[in-house]
Amino acid sequence: MMMLTLGLLVVIAVVLVWAVLIYNRLVQLRNRVANAFGQIDVQLKRRHDLVPNLIEVARAYLAHESATLEAVIRARGPAQAAAATARAQPANAASIGALAVAEGALGSSLGRLMAVAESYPDLKADATMRSLSEELTSTENRLGFARQAYNDQVLDFNNEATQFPDLIVARLLGFAPAAMLEATQSEVERAAPQVRF
Fold it and tell me: Quick check: 44 and 143 in contact, CB under 8 A?
């Protein structure tokens, strides 16, 4: 009877140690996801801060392109709000999805602004506009790398949280899979451009 009780206590202790180790690993991976999102957030803030300066410089040259300028301004607000929500919950699928949509809209309107700016030689030649365009391009590149790092951390976390036997601990303790930060382009935008001569 004593051996049975001792054996049962050993089994319980082993299971508890196993559960604690898995829990700690899941917490570590979730923290890495949050850290990776923090890197994205830094670049998003930089991008959001560049937009008003870009608009101000472009406004002087693009007076009759006010719809394009207003579209960028309108897209910036929701992008900032979505970034704030995602900052609070970087592993939440809904907040990351909303961020991807808002940032897609901002990126699209910025792209239209840059395309319009290309057709105005005086604006293209403006030193401040060139500098801001270069900053924006640099920020977009950094943002791309940060998104890739975030998605790598999400993959690691999701793999750990969804594989057996860790899945048991993850589900019991509320570790839901995190969402990847994906591009939100439509199928038409994703399609390769057709070149015809």
Answer: yes
Rounded-to-integer distance, Cα 138 and Cα 145, Å: 11
Main-chain dihedrals φ then ψ at residue 138, nearest 5 degrees = -60, -45
pLDDT in tens, 7-17: 999 999 999 99
Distance of CA 172 to the CA centre of its chain: 27
CB 13 within 8 A of CB 70: no
Give the pair of three-digit tokens for residue 64.
Answer: 């009759």
How far from 66 is each of 23, 57, 62, 77, 115, CA to CA, in Å? 53, 13, 7, 17, 14
Q: Please give the Cα distance from 37 to 124 (Å, whole number).
A: 34
DSSP one-letter code for 191: S
pTM: predicted TM-score of the whole model, two decimal places: 0.78
Domains and CATH numbers, the chain: 34-147 (1.20.1440.20)
Unique residue bearing structure tokens 């608009």: 55
**What is the Cα–Cα distance from 182 to 100, expressed in whole angstroms?**
7
